[in-house]
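Page 47, continued from p. 46.
Same chain as before, 233 aa.
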Amino acid sequence: MVHNLHDTMLIVLKENVKYKKLVKNLEEKVLAQEESIRQLQEKCQLVNDSLLRDTEDPNFENNQAIVEENDINVTSIMNENLHKANTRLCLDAGHGSHSNVAFFSYMDHDLPTPSPDHTLVFDVSPTDTNNHYNKFTGIFTAPHSGTYVFTWTSYCVSGGFTYLQAVVNDIVLDSSYCNAAGAQYHRSITGTVAANINQSDAVFIRTHPTGINQGEVVSSDNHRTTFAGWLLF
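Result:
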């Protein structure tokens, strides 16, 4: 049991490291874009300085119009890139809630052999920022569009087996199969998935619509069946 929990923690930690690298890569791309904008601004400044020295030139007015057009283009590019950066990395303080979406829940009792297409209800939710997970239905509703990570762990009783699916609306994201046939004690399985989710999408864990399950889904203080998720970016 302790070994299974340790393996689960290692899996989640490895996933977190991978996604942190993705975020770091995005941040580096934003910095590169900002550097490109700075260089464009320097070039425009050089043009401005040159034109100021040539104000007596008969073509001054035409040149000035070109400079103003360049300034507008640079400003437009800068604003567009900053908007993208704020949206993807949640840097805008006015959208701080976008970075605060996370929940963790678990079942506080064993579930008798579930029927096919049964939604698991994880009725205890110690962590649920802004209440987007419903502990009465087992459904998480996405408050914002973005890339989310979901992970779940299920325990099956000795001699039993359970087919589970992670579902968004009616689309299966991933599945898991806990098989304790021939085992002397409970066994567990953990699934983790990263997915692009739209605002108001419903995400939940269910049994396979046509699969047959055998034995209880086990959940207690010593081995909890859990469901968790968070907004990555």
